[in-house]
Amino acid sequence: MNAGKKRTLSKTIRFVHWFQNPEDQAIAGLLAATLAWGKRSMILEKLNDLMIRLEWDPQGFVLSTHKQKYKALKGFGYRTFMESDAIAFFKVLSQLYQSGNNLESLFNHSASPQIWNPWLGIQSFRMYFTSVPGVPLRTLKHIADPDKGSAAKRLHLFLRWMVREDQIDVGIWNHLPKSQLICPLDVHTGRVARQLGILDRNANDKKSAEEVTDFLRMITPEDPVKWDVALFGLGLEFTYPSQKLS
């Protein structure tokens, strides 16, 4: 963790910047994205609680072979993400990292960045998760399934953080092409996209996420997801009339 900073979370989900180690950033980012639904203050409170339990050392926790380490997660929960889900997540991450791999290798399904597809990266992550023995079926509901049409908003948000680099996104996986990223679509970005005439479909699903991204890619083909923060912010701050904006 950066030496000069207090061990509390900022007002936005940018706390991955508080870590210097890229693997800490990746693990913390995945956890933040997984819990990124609901009231922001509660999200940050729970992430802070979780990091304290990990002693602000996510990579050290997953690499630890101490059998009693999961006791640190006792009683943790946020909405439908329960203690058993937290333990399952860390058992999967522990197996991944202790085998010499990491999250980047899991999401990077292709040997060539030119043909990297974030949807396939998400599916690779989900398939690995389901392959680990002892993962409860209920935990899988916290991992989107693009094959079933999910927009996979939280995992695309995670990929945005990891691949892009600016004041928000850490960009530690910068060899992956940001031009291939998919806009993290949720109710806020979907509403704004419809009011702006970007999106015609009513559902906030995979097809809609692709439709929004295709439009943004016409504006900035090298970095279509750069507009995500603006769309999300508009969705939070304003309530638009039913007609499209002109």
Describe the structure.
The chain is mainly alpha-helical and 246 residues long. It folds into 2 domains: 15-150 and 157-174, Endonuclease III, domain 1, CATH 1.10.340; 183-246, no CATH class. It contains 10 helices and no strands. It has helices at residues 22-34, 40-53, 58-63, 83-98, 103-107, 118-131, 153-163, 187-195, 206-219, 228-237. Helix 8 (187-195) packs across helix 10 (228-237).
Binned, the helix content reads: 40-55%
Overall geometry comes to globular
Biggest beta-sheet profile? none
Number of domains: 2
Residue-averaged pLDDT, rounded? 87
Kindly provide the name of the CATH class of the largest domain. Mainly Alpha
What would CATH call the architecture of the largest domain? Orthogonal Bundle
* CATH third-tier fold name of the largest domain: Endonuclease III, domain 1
The residue ranges in which pLDDT falls below 50 over 5 or more consecutive positions are: 2-12, 239-246
Helix and strand content put the structural class at mainly alpha
Task: Name a few traits of the molecule.
globular; disordered N terminus; disordered C terminus; Endonuclease III, domain 1; mainly alpha; 2 domains; 246 residues
Could you give a quick summary of the protein structure above?
The protein is built from ten helices and no strands. It is mostly helical and 246 residues long. The radius of gyration is 18 Å and the shape is globular.
